[in-house]
Amino acid sequence: MMTKQWAWSGALFAALATGMLAFAQPSYGQEQIRVPVNVQMTVVVANVEKGVDSKKAKPGDKFTAKVVTSTTLNDGTAVPAGSVLEGQVDSATKSEHHGNATLVLTIDKLKLTNGNEIPVKAVIMQVSSFETALGNGGGQNTGPFENSKTDSSMMNSSLGSQGSSSGPHPVPGLTVSNSQNEQNSGTLTQERDNVSLSSENQLQVAVAVIPKGLNTK
């Protein structure tokens, strides 16, 4: 599968809102379950509430992110602001001797404000930061699903020579990789440091409701 690089673009996420995602066929030993190949994804923006850090994270550790703006999913489900995306750590590699660190994450549940919980397929498209951004800060972002990946150098043009940036902006040195053929929601790689998701971060996640009777795991 060819790796693609994508620059920061607001138009990208508008396109994703009406895009399609082809799911893989997961395996359970001898059993395989086919998930429909044309499932419309909706880009959901959510602020991290309960975070995780590759320095001490373990498989199974939970994280959450609260939805910022109301939206509607592929099956017509209304998602009010304040709903919560829930996920867990699949694997974590901490940074040693200033090496890179990784977090492999899966978001598989959406809890609505009325308490209803919905199983979802999710792909992490972007991780932004609310912390002060210095000029020429790098960051990452990914494009539509197909083993997509970008590195910090791709994002320099988005900040240019600005001295600082308010609001969400790319995280310097952070790369997000994702693929529709993976069961996880994405792999976060931080250059020369640990990966940290905290309340200072915002996620853009492509989400689809899993049809009843099917599972993507």
What is shown here, in short?
This protein is mainly beta. The protein has helices spanning 10-16, 156-159, and strands at 20-21, 27-28, 31-32, 39-40, 42-50, 52-53, 62-67, 71-72, 78-79, 84-93, 101-111, 117-129, 133-134, 148-149, 164-165, 169-170, 174-178, 186-190, 196-197, 201-209. The strands form six sheets. The chain has a six-stranded antiparallel beta barrel. It has a two-stranded antiparallel sheet with strand order 1-4.
- What is the strand arrangement across the widest sheet? 5-7-10-11-12-20
Helix proportion of residues, in percent? under 10%
Uncertain parts: 1-35, 133-165
Strand content: 35-45%
Structure characterization notes:
It is built from two helices and 20 strands. The chain is globular, with a radius of gyration of 17 Å. The strands form six sheets. The protein has a six-stranded antiparallel beta barrel with strand order 5-7-10-11-12-20. Strands 1-4 form a two-stranded antiparallel sheet. The protein has a two-stranded antiparallel sheet with strand order 2-3. The model is unreliable at 1-35 and 133-165 (pLDDT under 50). The longest helix is centred in the first third of the chain and has 7 residues, at 10-16. With 217 residues, the protein is mainly β. It has one domain (10-154, 170-209).
